[in-house]
Queue: 3 jobs
Job 1
Amino acid sequence: MHKKRVLLLSEGFGSGHTQAAYALAYGLRELDPSVQTRVIELGKFLNPVLGPMIVNAYRKTVSKQPKLVGIVYRRQYKKSLNRLTQLALHRIFYTHTSQVINQLKPDLIVCTHPVPNAVVSRLKRLGLDVPLYTLITDYDAHGTWTSPEVTKYLVSTPLVKKKLTDRGISEDRIEVTGIPVHPNFWHTHDKPELQSQFELKPMPTVLIMGGGWGILYSDNLLEYMTRWRDTIQLIYCVGNNDRAREKMLSDPIFQHPNIRILGFTREVSKLMDVSDLLVTKPGGMTCTEGLSKGIPMLFYEPIPGQEEENCEYFIQNGFGEMLDSTATIDKWFKLIQEPYASVQFRRNLLTKRNQQYNPTQCSRAVLQLLQ
């Protein structure tokens, strides 16, 4: 019997796109071990030297000129990638994409980033006969995600579906599945066991995340949080930002028994379970992971564009609040020290989550489409 093969294509412009691809791949195999999956960051795979250079340039632009990123995002908001752009991308970076697809022989291609989505769309116009599913990994629908060749769009919310239908895309090509998270986020771990595993104290705990690139908030508010270190346990997770980690480790302000500074870790699901509050940039993936855990979130410095839209969605739906002052820190750090209030708030979030989000839904939807 032929085993179904799913090829998931992403790009490294922010860690969330590839995380979503891996989450979907893991979810598919969790539900049906016979499904074969392959995740590829296409640009890096085809151009191992040039690809990472372009991603690094984008990373620097995001961190140093976020307003420019926002301007470009809004100017192109309603525009899909035109055929000339698709041709240029294919000729310069993606000339061997068809060979990769022919070699792997997938029954289905899922793209979690607009660029491979555009490249595969062009190949379909040239005769590629493989269904193309586009997993939009934010709570917005930028025009670059859209293409007539897309078989089905998998989207986070009914609002994103409406944004696509407003652009003339028929409803039967759109399915609201939520953004997939790794199966580790499907289940809750035992808190005392986690406290023992991570050598943490049984006290109110805040997890501060800088995303995969480790872009943290302004030094002033980072330092202000440490004023609570005698009563609040602080876990700073700075991802791959080794410079920020070394700087913080050498700073006396962060040298305290109730402060932990971590680099890249694969234990985020456990760290969310052991924490009472998440402080994070509003990337679509991290926010969805927080949603799946029912942890209250404070959002800082959204990148203009998609992160602003992510932020708006989660705030409007009561899953978080914008971190814009020390007063916000004081409010939430006091709340999580009140056991009844903290537990009740999290229960309310889990009830909302169950009404709006099922972490297995995206994987189940793709399995059904494979039948």
Job 2
Amino acid sequence: MRKKRVLLLSEGFGSGHTQAAYALAVGIRELNPNIVTRVIELGNFLNPVIGPLIISAYKKTVSKQPKLVGIVYRRQYKKSLNRFTQLALHRIFYTQTAQVISQLKPDLIVCTHPVPNAVVCRLKRLGLDVPLYTLITDYDAHGTWTSPEVTKYLVSTSLVKKKLTDRGIPSSRVEVTGIPVHPNFWRTNDKSEIQPQFDLKPMPTVLIMGGGWGIMYSDNLLKYMAGWRDSIQLIYCVGSNEKAREKMLADPIYQHPNIKVLGFTREVSKLMDVSDLLITKPGGMTCTEGLSKGIPMLFYEPIPGQEEVNCEYFVESGFGEMLISSDTIDKWFSLIQEPYTSIQHRRDLLSKRNLQYNPMQCSRAVLQLMQ
């Protein structure tokens, strides 16, 4: 008997969209090994020369002109990608999408980014007969995700569902599944077993993440955190920003036995397990991974738009706090040095998480919808 196939389409505009696609794919296979999954960053796959150039230009815009990104986000907030835009995207970048789908013969397509979602919606209007699930990878519902051709929306919270139904999307077409995380985040590892893998000591530990593109916080506060290095173990994870990593490694303030400066790593799950506090940008994926681990979070410099909404959700839900000054650092760095208080706080977050989020729910939901 032919195995069922799930095609997951994403784009490289931020690492979270593709991470969500891979997390869902791995989760599906772990729950049902008979399902075949394939993840494709569609633009890069179809245009391996032009695609990376466009993404690079987008990165520069986000890092250098975040206010412009916010303005565009808000102006288009309630608007779907119109048919002319969908046609232009298809003609310029995605002309071979139908051929790819025809070759792979998926039983189901999941899109984790609005652009491939719009392209597949256009193909469905032209006769493509494959169910399309749209996984919204933030804690907001921007209009560019929406289209009449979407079979089912998979969303992070009931609040996002309400935003979609308020726009006229039937409630039956929206399912609250949470954002999927890799199965590594479904489980908790023992600190004492993991610490030697990273040459870490059994002491209060803070994980500072710069995001998938390595966009870090201001030098002043990074150095202020390092000033705690005698009593707090600090793990700086700067992502793909190798220049930032080299700069930090050359700075004497970070040359200390209790400070680790890491580049890109696939061990974030373990690093969260050995840490008592996460300092991060409020990207939908990283926040959800932190939520799944029940680690308290401090959020810095949200990009105007979806990151602001993500931050608002997690702060209001009690899973994190905005990092607004050195006073915030002093408060939390002192708190995690009190073992009972720190352990109890994490237990409280895990209990709250269990009421609001099941890390396996999205994978399970897709399997149930395929039956």
Job 3
Amino acid sequence: MRGITLPSWYRTDYDSPAADRYLRGIRATGAEWVTFTPTWYQKRHTDDSLHTTEETASDGSLRRIVRRAHTLGLKVMIKPHVDLPGDEDRADIRPRDRAAWFTSYRRFITHYADLAADTGTERLAVGTELAGVSGDSADWRSVIRAVRDHYDGPLTYAANYDEYRRIHFWKDLDLIGIDAYWPLSATPTTDPARLSRAWKPIKDELAAYAHAQNRRILFTEAGYVSQRGATTAPYSWTVSRDPAPAEQAAAYRALLDSFTGARWWAGVCWWMWDDWPDSGETPVKLAYTPRGKPAEEVLREEWGP
């Protein structure tokens, strides 16, 4: 999978005039896949249900952008998210009534399974970074069975890099999904070789895990802000206020050089192409987007003809 995520933060984002431009930009990197992230919300981490808000991509806009992506020759993964207000972490979701929460969750995820089936979406994630509930294996197997009743394509779950070993339902899915935000360096660096050395023990561990589970591993997310220190905390939007596009580019190159060609590795979907106009809280020069930066050139070199 040569992929890039185009997330949404508002119900009409995917109908934005920028949508076609963003999709063409993604395709021009050599990407063959794009991931979309419709998001439902809950007000508190202990709530027993989730719901749409004005920040949830409308079904119509999602259907239309899937169609546009397919027209451009891009395959699609839909990776629905559940979020909390502000900067609260979805990994902290721990509902008071787990049975009620999973009933609500099945309604949520089968809704997108139907949409994925209707639009010819090529891959679906059944969940993303829900570490507070991902240990409830029997409930997840029930969710997965329900999804398969609605959608016939390959399924994954996007586990955070420090969560994936605690997942016990990988064999019910088609791919192991990992959001690959491993810290690679104690100090900022622009040296791809140094970063590749840091990946080596992680790669060895993942290869063994893929073999033990008899499943390939997909990096459902990986990304780096273009800030000094991005390689020390890839999961952070605010490592520093100092632009460091060379560090971001080095991290892109090291990941691709380290994993491309490994038979057990199913590819990567980079986080993320861009914020929508006027919606980004992080200035573009500091954000995760590779667009217009040396990291985009790395993608073109690695993925181009």
